[in-house]
């Protein structure tokens, strides 16, 4: 029989999650709340990149995340803030510390993906992806780290990169560049924050069942450039469909908890072995 501590390993802790309105972000919020954490959630809830082939999150999506977290019996503070807005993130973190008194877990999840060959995409398309996926993570780091150090409770920062942050693929080189950059931020920050007992790791999903993962414009890229498909293997394990976001959330929970106390500066694949194929 499991004990209460085993059921709620994050009891008394507070988690900050970006890109929380739907997809992986929502799943991470729910999973961390179920483990006992109160949640601070942000999402732009608006169009963020003109060339995305999937619709943006909406305010009602974030409201649904709030409802689901509250359904787990936890408190949640949710605001419509774009990760590219450093001042906005710093304000949210300051208000969250005032409300909850602490910040223990950070999941830098927000990101965008769109398609095009590198020399054919516009400067705007390149910049929007890098600004959200890489600068947005730096903004999150800059907003949360001072409060975590001051609290003196240690903690765990989990940056959501991608399998494309380890194995670059054709058709989205700007996305790959941003996600490789997340790895560099992760590893450097892990060394810098080690003395404060704050661990920093990155997670690398592949083929996840979210609006981004179901972007049909990817198939047009493969139709136009059929040799690109060889860079996208199904992985080593049987693959009937895109992976459910909650499977990635299980990894996020492990990294957020003391069960991974020896793990920092690590790149954790969530890819069914894709990176080895």
UniProtKB/TrEMBL annotation:
PANTHER family assigned to the protein according to its UniProt record, in alphabetical order: DEHYDROGENASES, SHORT CHAIN, ESTRADIOL 17-BETA-DEHYDROGENASE 8-RELATED
SUPFAM superfamilies: NAD(P)-binding Rossmann-fold domains
Keywords tagged on the record: NAD, Oxidoreductase
Protein name: Oxidoreductase, SDR family
Keyword hit for Transcription regulation: no
Any GO molecular function: oxidoreductase activity
Organism name: Mycolicibacterium rhodesiae (strain NBB3) (Mycobacterium rhodesiae)
Family: Belongs to the short-chain dehydrogenases/reductases (SDR) family.
Keyword Oxidoreductase in record: yes
InterPro entries with a match to the protein in the record: NAD(P)-bd_dom_sf (IPR036291), Sc_DH/Rdtase_CS (IPR020904), SDR_fam (IPR002347), SDR_subfam_1 (IPR023985)
């Amino acid at each position: 029989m499991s004990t209460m501590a085993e059921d709620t390993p994050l009891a008394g802790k507070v988690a900050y999650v970006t890109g929380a309105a739907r997809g992986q972000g929502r799943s991470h919020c729910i999973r961390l709340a179920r483990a006992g954490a109160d949640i601070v959630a942000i999402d732009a809830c608006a169009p963020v990149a003109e060339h995305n082939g999937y619709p943006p999150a909406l305010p009602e999506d974030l409201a649904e995340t709030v409802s689901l977290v509250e359904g787990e019996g936890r408190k949640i503070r949710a605001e419509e803030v774009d990760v590219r807005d450093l001042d906005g993130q710093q304000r949210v973190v300051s208000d969250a510390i005032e409300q909850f008194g602490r910040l223990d877990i950070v999941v830098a999840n927000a990101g965008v993906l769109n398609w095009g060959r590198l020399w054919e995409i516009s400067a705007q398309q390149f910049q929007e992806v890098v600004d959200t996926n890489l600068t947005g993570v730096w903004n999150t780091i800059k907003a949360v780290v001072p409060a975590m150090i001051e609290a003196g409770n240690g903690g765990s920062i989990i940056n959501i990169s991608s399998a494309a942050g380890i194995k670059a693929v054709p058709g989205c080189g700007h996305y790959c560049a941003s996600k490789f950059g997340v790895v560099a931020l992760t590893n450097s920050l892990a060394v810098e924050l080690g003395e404060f007992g704050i661990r920093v790791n990155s997670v690398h999903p592949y083929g996840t069942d979210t609006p981004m993962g179901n972007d049909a414009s990817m198939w047009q890229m493969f139709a136009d450039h059929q040799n690109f498909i060889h860079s996208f293997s199904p992985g080593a394990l049987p693959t009937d469909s895109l992976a459910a976001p909650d499977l990635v959330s299980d990894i996020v929970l492990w990294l957020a908890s003391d069960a991974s106390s020896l793990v920092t500066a690590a790149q954790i694949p969530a890819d069914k072995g894709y990176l080895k194929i």
